[in-house]
């Protein structure tokens, strides 16, 4: 059945909203301490103003140069821009900043990336340090600039950085040994590492991005009535396997938001699309031929509509801007990503004509007067919800059972201590008996009288030996009478308990002769029975012999204890 | 922009120059775009073909003398309702095949519109080929060869009549495109760090410098 991957559960809307007190309507982002970018920037600005007002002044005055005139001026301005960064950054500033920005989660992710690429970067020796230096410089520059440079420039700088790495690998003679694939992977590493590090500065950084996110989210919610038929999708809703593939595609798409590096987000898209091809081929044992774009795009649109991923546009923009451009222009991943962009673009454009229905009908659907098909379109999601609830129920059941186990364990513990107490009691009786017995070589009658005094019910019991078999049922009744919740677990534990008692009894009879030696008499005479008993119980039920009559008392005393 | 290369072939042969191109398929629904590309990709050159689960994105390599030309073929959704999305597909494409059905005059008119759009909006210098498909249905022809030939000549297009069914001219048209594409020596820097990733799962990645 469908498995919810970690991190793919969706969060309530309220939790996603900006944290600002007077109800800002934008989405917040953990990267911005739960604020939206605008509020976060305001706060940051304020902080910066307080910290170093002069620097902000410099940056502000140069904040928006026009970089898009022609190649030459573009390069020039970029260069001057870079110089500007160099002049404004002082070492203190950076180290202070990086300390403040330290995020254990990101640090852990970076560590993972380092481990993943460890062997790749080991040869040649200079590679790691060269790469690290480039990455560090790039990251520092981006961190310095993220608040006041336009996002297009940041994107350009990033692409430039990728190009620089590639140039370094291609032109430096020490890297001649590396083959193309290695170089690719090294580039991958640089991209992954720097993007994870810079994620909170680069993802969803403009107000426009957020507006678009909200807009598309609202739009998709409005279009919740659109079903597979409207889109001419070929989805066999009666096939469980197909339905599962649709769910998987939806989950992969939802997962895109939790991936950090651009290539990881891209990988989510690729996995989503592969599931869609699975759908089109009719599941694992599909008989249909290879699906073409005509079949593929409608299903992708359907999946996007049903998934309604959070921060969809921000994610698309982030990948477009900061993923190595070549990856998006070509290759399977590029193709799928382009299709996703197309699907989103189509959703933004959807109108009556595009769905081949008349305008009135479309309007009625959009303003909610016509809802007949909602069930149809929601079916798939309902099923998902249904499964989720099933799994939640399963979890609840497991939790309940776990509680029962804990409860039983506590009970068992209590019973064991009771058992011990009883033995202490027995022991004191026993001691008395022994004391009597010691003297009773002369007076037999005295002993029987004393037992009768303690236990009037003794007459009901078999007059003969107290053996383990007699203790066992006594323990059983004990357990079941204390347990109020009777279910399978209780039965189980009851059995365990009685097994314990059985063991104990067996132990008793085995140890009988061993313990009943002279040392035993000795301890009784020393009157240190309490310590002795504790020791006995710890030693694992090495219980001294019990004469038959006192043995009978175990049953009755335990019964009266409970009552 | 011929910029990427595949490093090693499965059989371990040292590769010559390998250039990669993005090619989009355009044309009305049912003219045979998918059939054409399937015929081209599945019909031959099995040795280098990557496994695909759909016919929407396919790759195929052609050998021209010492150069291996790898086509990355992007199928586009042909339905009328998706026409406005086409620019996203042909962005960055180095070649396009505009397909029409020789038995259907409307599809030819539609093809002309595609050509116009490509010439106006696509990458400058994009190689455009016009393919009159379903040549095997010659008896039902409604678009005359002369007409298309003249149109293609006037607009600087390559032109061939093809049949996905009989595979007539299928490889030929791709080969002709491959020949016409610039296999420039110095496209490396122009590529702006472009590289390709064959699959996002990291199976088989390649790097530029075919043209190095
Ligand atoms: N007779 C004939 N039929 C073809 C040819 N090419 C495609 N078809 C048929 O035309 C229909 C549409 O083809 P398809 O490749 O799906 O067109 P697309 O929508 O442009 O991708 C299918 O039924 C094909 O069998 C051809 O060369 N000759
Ligand atoms: Mg097709
Ligand atoms: Zn806010």
From TrEMBL, chain A:
Pfam families: DUF5601, VPS9, zf-A20. SMART domains: VPS9, ZnF_A20. One of its GO terms (cellular component) is endocytic vesicle. Residues 50-69 are annotated as: Disordered. Residues 12-48 form the A20-type domain. One of its GO terms (molecular function) is DNA binding. InterPro entries: DUF5601 (IPR041545), VPS9 (IPR003123), Vps9-like (IPR045046), VPS9_dom_sf (IPR037191), Znf_A20 (IPR002653). Keywords: Metal-binding, Zinc, Zinc-finger. PANTHER family: RAB GDP/GTP EXCHANGE FACTOR (PTHR23101), RABAPTIN-5-ASSOCIATED EXCHANGE FACTOR FOR RAB5 (PTHR23101:SF122). This is Rab5 GDP/GTP exchange factor. The lineage of its organism: Eukaryota, Metazoa, Ecdysozoa, Arthropoda, Hexapoda.
From TrEMBL, chain B:
This is Ras-related protein Rab-5C. NCBIfam families: small_GTP (TIGR00231). Belongs to the small GTPase superfamily. Rab family. Residues 185-208 are annotated as: Disordered. It comes from the Eukaryota. InterPro entries: P-loop_NTPase (IPR027417), Small_GTP-bd (IPR005225), Small_GTPase (IPR001806). Keywords: Nucleotide-binding. The keyword Repeat does not apply. GO terms for molecular function: GTP binding; GTPase activity. Signal peptide: none annotated.
């Amino acid at each position: 059945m469908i498995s919810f991957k970690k991190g793919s559960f969706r969060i309530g809307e309220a939790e996603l909203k900006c944290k600002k007190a007077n109800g800002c309507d934008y989405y917040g982002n953990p990267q911005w301490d739960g604020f939206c970018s605008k509020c976060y920037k305001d706060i940051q600005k304020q902080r910066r103003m307080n910290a170093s007002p002069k620097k902000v002044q410099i940056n502000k005055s140069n904040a928006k140069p026009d970089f898009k005139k022609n190649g030459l001026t573009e390069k020039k301005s970029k260069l001057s821009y870079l110089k500007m960064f160099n002049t404004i950054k002082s070492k203190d500033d950076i180290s202070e900043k990086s300390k403040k920005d330290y995020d254990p989660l990101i640090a852990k992710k970076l560590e993972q990336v380092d481990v993943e690429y460890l062997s790749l970067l080991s040869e040649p020796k200079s590679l790691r340090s060269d790469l690290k230096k480039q990455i560090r410089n790039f990251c520092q520059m981006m961190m310095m600039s993220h608040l006041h440079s336009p996002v297009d420039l940041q994107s350009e700088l990033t692409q430039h950085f990728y190009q620089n790495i590639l140039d370094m690998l291609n032109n430096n003679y020490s890297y001649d040994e590396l083959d193309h694939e290695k170089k690719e992977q090294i580039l991958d590493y640089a991209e992954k590492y720097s993007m994870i590090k810079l994620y909170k500065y680069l993802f969803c950084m403009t107000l426009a991005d957020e507006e678009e996110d909200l807009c598309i989210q609202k739009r998709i919610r409005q279009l919740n009535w659109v079903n597979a038929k409207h889109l001419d999708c070929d989805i066999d809703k009666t096939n469980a396997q197909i339905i599962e593939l649709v769910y998987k595609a939806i989950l992969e798409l939802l997962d895109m938001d939790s991936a950090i590096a651009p290539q990881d987000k891209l990988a989510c898209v690729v996995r989503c699309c592969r599931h869609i091809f699975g759908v089109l081929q009719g599941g694992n044992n599909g008989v249909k031929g290879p699906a073409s774009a005509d079949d593929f795009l409608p299903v992708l649109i359907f999946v996007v509509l049903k998934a309604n991923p959070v921060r969809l546009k921000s994610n698309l923009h982030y990948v477009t801007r900061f993923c190595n451009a070549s990856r998006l222009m070509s290759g399977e991943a590029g193709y799928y990503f382009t299709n996703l962009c197309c699907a989103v673009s189509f959703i933004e454009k959807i109108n009556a004509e595009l769905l081949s229905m008349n305008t009135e009908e479309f309007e009625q659907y959009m303003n909610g007067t016509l809802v007949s098909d909602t069930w149809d379109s929601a079916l798939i999601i309902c099923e998902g919800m249904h499964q989720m609830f099933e799994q939640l129920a399963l979890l609840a059941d497991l939790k309940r059972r776990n509680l029962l186990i804990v409860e039983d364990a506590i009970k068992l513990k209590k019973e064991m201590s009771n058992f011990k107490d009883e033995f202490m009691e027995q022991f004191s009786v026993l001691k008395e008996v022994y004391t009597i017995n010691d003297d009773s070589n002369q007076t037999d009658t005295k002993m029987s009288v004393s037992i009768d005094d303690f236990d009037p019910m003794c007459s009901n019991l078999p007059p003969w030996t107290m053996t383990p078999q007699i203790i066992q049922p006594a323990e059983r009744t004990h357990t079941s009478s204390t347990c109020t919740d009777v279910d399978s677990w209780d039965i189980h534990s009851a059995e365990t308990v009685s097994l314990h008692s059985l063991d104990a009894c067996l132990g008793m009879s085995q140890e009988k002769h061993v313990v009943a030696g002279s040392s035993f008499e000795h301890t009784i005479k020393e009157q240190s029975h309490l310590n002795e008993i504790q020791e006995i119980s710890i030693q694992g039920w090495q219980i001294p012999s019990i004469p038959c009559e006192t043995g009978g008392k175990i049953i009755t005393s335990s019964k009266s204890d409970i009552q | 922009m011929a910029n990427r290369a595949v490093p090693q072939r499965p059989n371990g042969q040292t590769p010559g120059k390998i250039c990669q191109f993005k090619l989009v398929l355009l044309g009305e629904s049912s003219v045979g775009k998918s059939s054409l590309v399937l015929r081209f990709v599945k019909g031959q050159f099995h040795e280098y073909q990557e496994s695909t689960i759909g016919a929407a994105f396919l790759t195929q390599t052609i050998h021209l003398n010492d150069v291996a030309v790898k086509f990355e073929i992007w199928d586009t959704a042909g339905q009328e309702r998706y026409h406005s999305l086409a620019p996203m597909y042909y962005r960055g494409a180095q070649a396009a095949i505009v397909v029409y059905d020789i038995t259907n005059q409307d599809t030819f008119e539609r093809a002309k519109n595609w050509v116009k759009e490509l010439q106006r909006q696509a990458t400058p210098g994009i190689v455009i080929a016009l393919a009159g498909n379903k040549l095997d249905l010659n008896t039902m022809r409604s678009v005359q060869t002369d007409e298309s030939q003249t149109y293609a000549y006037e607009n600087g297009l390559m032109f061939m009549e093809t049949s996905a069914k009989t595979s007539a001219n299928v490889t030929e048209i791709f080969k002709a495109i491959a020949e016409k594409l610039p296999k420039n020596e110095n496209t490396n820097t122009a590529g702006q760090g472009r590289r390709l990733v064959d699959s996002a799962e990291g199976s088989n990645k390649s790097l530029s410098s075919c043209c190095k």
